[in-house]
């Protein structure tokens, strides 16, 4: 249990030298408090906790303090009372780069740590972009009014060190001092990331500007890249919504997430109808336990489920089986929202669920594609696009028929999304298409690849739908890639998945590999997963049957490929 006496709660602080005590008078109603659910289930502990919360006077006894220590404490009293600020010290302590955050003691500390991390990430991104892409440049106008950027000869190409994403913006300083805005389209970003040649489009096309560029000399212009204000706004929005949600009552216990106080063990009791369903019978022992943990019916839990496992152990397959079981047998859990930060991960989750639900002709699934994802499919001539196409929003609109004249396109699309049983999309798309989700009320939220997703991104879909979500599922493997932070800030580069595991949150661990050959899995196990039962399932079956069996490739292979660039797009 934990109680934080906040500065606004303090009434008086004094040092009683005769009794060697520090005396604090405070308002208990203005304090933060948290009692983990496992302790709250004990009536005696709950009563003690409530009695302590009602106190207004705290006396801390000092064990034989030395005179020098008392003198320092006397100097420290004004800071405790709030008469002196300690914010500089607080900033330095939290913002130390590379240090993993510890939020388990204060909601105020949680907010402050993230405010520092967001500012530091934005400022560092500005510096890196300026170093990589800023400076004196020459410009050339192509036949379609595209502007090609040429750097000085002695400048090395640096696009591999900092690839672009989304639709980044720039400012071009003309010789007369005028600043002209420009941007990279999705195709221009893709060209830069693959070849290193930077092309821009002027935001406000002008014949005067084009003519001036055409007659210019090399290195006559200055280029100023701009960091993503949109991403910063998204992070600040999520943080503010988290602080609001801490004061609300929701099915998912957000306070336990922020304070790192979860259940003590994984849940295992499910509806009896699920115990006999074919989706559960096809899973191995560890996957079956994760399936039960994901769909458990036990009262008093935090409703936050962690599923962990190395590559090839079937995290995506397990989740897909659970989702298929809900579609077939547990309609009260519908609808479901499945998200991931990267297109490859959400694509693999969709394909696996599509396969698991193929026998259900009444499935109603939507894959909400971004422009960036569709562009990638078209560029690679990926045949998967044909499989996905019938489940995209344009296909659903065509299937529903003409839009009635009396409603807007936003309402029409919102209505279609609201009719779906399961929706798959990226986290960014949740934020960028906020106005289209008014009719969708998900009860289960699944974040795939959560160990490679930073905490604010992971919580964004939850805060968006927090009033209807009853189960929050995070799947991942913290031994693979971590969230990327260009600033190196520990808060930004630590995933919610990793932080909860570090606070001994209950996790369903998948331990049987379905992809690697035994000699390969032994190397991986010794290097990254010492002590883990990491045996290939095909080997186990060979021992029982005495004959070899070919193993089909898993669609999860694509989900574990974390080398793809982060998806950023516009609403379209």
From TrEMBL:
<feature type="compositionally biased region" description="Basic and acidic residues">
    <location>
        <begin position="537"/>
        <end position="548"/>
    </location>
</feature>
<dbReference type="InterPro" id="IPR045055">
    <property type="entry name" value="DNA2/NAM7-like"/>
</dbReference>
<protein>
    <recommendedName>
        <fullName>DNA2/NAM7 helicase helicase domain-containing protein</fullName>
    </recommendedName>
</protein>
<dbReference type="InterPro" id="IPR027417">
    <property type="entry name" value="P-loop_NTPase"/>
</dbReference>
<dbReference type="InterPro" id="IPR041677">
    <property type="entry name" value="DNA2/NAM7_AAA_11"/>
</dbReference>
<feature type="compositionally biased region" description="Acidic residues">
    <location>
        <begin position="549"/>
        <end position="572"/>
    </location>
</feature>
<dbReference type="Pfam" id="PF13086">
    <property type="entry name" value="AAA_11"/>
</dbReference>
<feature type="domain" description="DNA2/NAM7 helicase helicase">
    <location>
        <begin position="413"/>
        <end position="487"/>
    </location>
</feature>
<feature type="domain" description="DNA2/NAM7 helicase helicase">
    <location>
        <begin position="283"/>
        <end position="363"/>
    </location>
</feature>
<dbReference type="GO" id="GO:0004386">
    <property type="term" value="F:helicase activity"/>
</dbReference>
<feature type="region of interest" description="Disordered">
    <location>
        <begin position="535"/>
        <end position="572"/>
    </location>
</feature>
